[in-house]
Amino acid sequence: DAMVIQNPRYQVTQFGKPVTLSCSQTLNHNVMYWYQQKSSQAPKLLFHYYDKDFNNEADTPDNFQSRRPNTSFCFLDIRSPGLGDAAMYLCATSSRTSGDYNEQFFGPGTRLTVL
Amino acid sequence: LAKTTQPISMDSYEGQEVNITCSHNNIATNDYITWYQQFPSQGPRFIIQGYKTKVTNEVASLFIPADRKSSTLSLPRVSLSDTAVYYCLVTNLGGGNKLTFGTGTQLKVEL
Questions:
Q1: From edge to edge, which strands make up the β-sheet containing B53-56?
Q2: Could you report the per-residue pLDDT of B60-91, keeping only the tens digit for each?
Q3: Are the C-beta atoms of B99 and B92 separated by less than 8 Å?
Q4: Measured distance CA(B21)–CA(B2) in Å, rounded
Q5: Are the C-beta atoms of A46 and B87 separated by less than 8 Å?
Q6: Distance from CA of A48 to the nearest CA of B (A)
Q7: pLDDT tens, N- to C-terminus, chain A (115 residues)
Q8: Which residues of B touch A (CB under 8 A)?
Q9: Which band of pLDDT confidence, cut at 50, 70 and 90, is reported for residue B58?
Q10: Among B92, B97, B98, B103, the residue to mutate for chain A (most A Cβ within 10 A)
Q11: CA–CA gap between residue B52 and residue B67 (Å, rounded)
């Protein structure tokens, strides 16, 4: 089945130690998104890629970076994780066509713990 | 994007129909209304989307009045497995398909 895969499902890092979360998709979608969801809160968009074009949300901290080496993979890099960055990180994809809305397909998320 | 307002929580029993209303007073002409469902420790899942009047699929129905300032998600005959958070979103065709999630409605279904 075509799907969005996130690895690892659980990640523990230390305060200030860089961490990378990965996302892969077999849907061949041209748009990939990263969301942050803190406990009991709604998902919040960090940034998205439309093909290779990177689109950052205005309030996304510089501590968060992303890479998309090819259509299938997208990475979220947190350069210096703080305690406030502990959250579920969700990757999503969609097939964007001009003028149409296309649903987003979410992965299961990676739960990040910062010690 | 238009802000959405929906009840924080709702309770229901198995077999009942559940209607979750969402208000979006500032919805724009190009905006669609979209609903997502999220189970604990999972990513959100698309349920239904509509522009006006009524949309129905195998999971739910979406009712949108003529002024489009509100919408109602209807879940027929809910079961325990429908316990989840339901998000109402206003999505803009020209907005890169970006999703801005509101607070969501926590639906709890009991026996």
A1: B18-23, B70-75, B61-64, B53-56
A2: 999 999 999 999 999 999 999 999 999 999 98
A3: no
A4: 15
A5: no
A6: 8
A7: 669 999 999 999 999 999 999 999 999 999 999 999 999 999 999 999 999 999 999 999 999 999 999 999 999 999 999 999 999 999 999 987 655 667 899 999 999 999 9
A8: 32, 34, 41-46, 49, 87, 91, 93, 96-104
A9: very high
A10: B97
A11: 9
* Rounded-to-integer distance, Cα A98 and Cα A103, Å: 14
Q: Which residue type is seen at B33? A: I
Of the CA atoms within 13 Å of residue A1, those in its CB half-sphere come to 4
Q: Where are the beta strands (DSSP E) in chain B?
A: 9-13, 18-23, 31-38, 45-50, 53-56, 61-64, 70-75, 84-92, 105-110
Residues of A in contact with B42 (CB under 8 A): 106, 108-109
